[in-house]
Amino acid sequence: MSRRDDADLDVDVLLDDPQRRIVVCCGSGGVGKTTTAAALALRAAERGRRVVVLTIDPARRLAQSLGLEHLDNTPRPVVGIDEAAGGSLEAMMLDMKRTFDEVVEAHTTPEKAEQILANPFYVALSSSFAGTQEYMAMEKLGQLRGQIADGSREWDLIVVDTPPSRSALDFLDAPGRLGSFLDGRLIRMLTAPAKVGGRASMRVLGGAVGLASGVMAKVLGGDLLRDVQTFVAATDTMFGGFRERAEQTYALLARDETAFLVVTSPDRDAAREAGYFIERLAADRMPPAGVVVNRVQTVRAARLGAGRAQEAADRLAESGEHAVAEAVLRVHVRRAETASRHRAMVRRFRTTHPGTPLTVVPAQQSDVHDLHGLRAVGSALSS
Question: Which end of the chain is less packed: N or C, by CB atoms within 10 Å?
Answer without folding.
Answer: N
